[in-house]
DNA sequence: CCTGTCACGAAACTCACCGTCTCGTCGCGG
DNA sequence: CCGCGACGAGACGGTGAGTTTCGTGACAGG
């Protein structure tokens, strides 16, 4: 065949369309925020991005994968700083998670995507990848706390992260307040202290 | 008006159709299990239940509410027994939750419903109600453990339940094993013991 | 300067499914 | 025997996903 086909697909395909590419992702984020994933129409994305629907389908196989890539920027961890105080670091971690889940674009879209990709292992894998950078950053926080001796040396970090992510997401899903439990959750992680009800004022 | 309108709607409406009513719910459960919520077609429900689509829409406003009611029987708690041993009771609780979430009909459908009802507070309320009986039963378990002195007397029961439900559901959503963490989670609840990695065999 | 190529935007199109509507049937009470 | 109302079947309109078609403009090579 021709030699040009030897180059990576992305290099060939995406050279021309920087503008369209980012415009599509931005439009998707905006519409996810306004209408939610179930009401996201690709016609609307195309219209807002001033792009033909063709262009969208040239790069993404469908609605789900487009939404996943669009969420990436929102979910990626900001800068994670280490204070050296495990309690403070973990509390910051929990707060960051609460913020992401509370963001409507993420908190509502994520369960929708989980449902949409339930029967498509490949798409599901992509969805899990979406959280990978954040999980990596948060893993580092817990490992550093463990190294400092503030967590058991053989602590199951992934499971402990699931406790934080899962508890907050579940509260979001059932409409319970999320921000209110940050401290209790941080104490649970860092001290094994089970949550108490706030004393009467 | 006529006196017959004084009777509750259900009594009037549902007298005639016992058969159709249960057939619809059973068909919905079966199709949820086979195809998943996103692929659930009401035409298919009607066909399998040998019922006109009209009959479905006579009683349910749409797909979401029908699915919620169909899940009810699966989510309702079986018999909850108290052994008197808090650790054993809590472990049984966690196991029950893991079983429900693992059941594909529930574990896949619940996030989908959460997404579908994100912009409809009334439907969302119904969805939360779906879990109410189970939550009530599990609340009793934790309260009895607290009364026995095995949990702090002022323990935040709802939040602790969110930890159990949320952690397991989140693991299910991200494709991680659910059954494997039952013991660790039970220990977290009953002793504040943070999860450890299993020692090498 | 001309020409072929290729990605693009716009829009028409197909297909599937939701929710509604129509119609003929059947069971039940009067 | 008659009439009412719920029923099953299926046709219908509307909406949105994903595909196809077509005309345009940017760029490269001659």
From TrEMBL, chains A, B:
Keywords: DNA-binding, Transcription, Transcription regulation. SUPFAM superfamilies: Homeodomain-like, Tetracyclin repressor-like, C-terminal domain. PROSITE patterns: HTH_TETR_2 (PS50977). Residues 41-60 bind DNA. Residues 18-78 form the HTH tetR-type domain. This is TetR/AcrR family transcriptional regulator.
